[in-house]
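Late entry, written up from scratch paper. The run itself happened at the end of the previous shift, but nothing got recorded in the book at the time, so transcribing now.
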Amino acid sequence: MKIGIAADHGGFELKKTISSFLAAHHYEVKDFGAHILDKNDDFPDFVVPLAQAIATREVARGIAVCGSGVGASVVANKIAGVRAALIHENFSAHQGVEDDDMNLLCLGGRVTGEEAAKEFILAFLQAKFIGAERHLRRLDKIKKVENK
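Output as recorded:
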């Protein structure tokens, strides 16, 4: 599975850890930046290209990290076809995929520890969309909102 990752300065260090972790678990990683630590960079510059790659299926899923994870989640959800969520615990990491077909996991580089991030990432990547009628019905309603 090809996974896209992106982070600004607030998530830069955690992104480095995530990249190595994904490679060790045999995931193909596409890094959308930042590639250098720049305290003046802006998360949309990295998260938007990642979200677009998810929407076009260039990558299967994505992980975006900013200081809190909030900004990454906000901007990612502006891209049609992206279902991003800020995750702070294991249940939502897999349930978001199973029920809502979440395709982008957002983390806070200043608030999420490395071991917790690894746990959430594995739960997210190993989860599969269930596709029950109620889930499909809800996704259909989301798509209608995106297309307005």
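Residues 2-146 form a domain with the Ribose 5-phosphate Isomerase B; Chain: A, fold (CATH 3.40.1400.10).
(Scratch paper discarded after transcription.)
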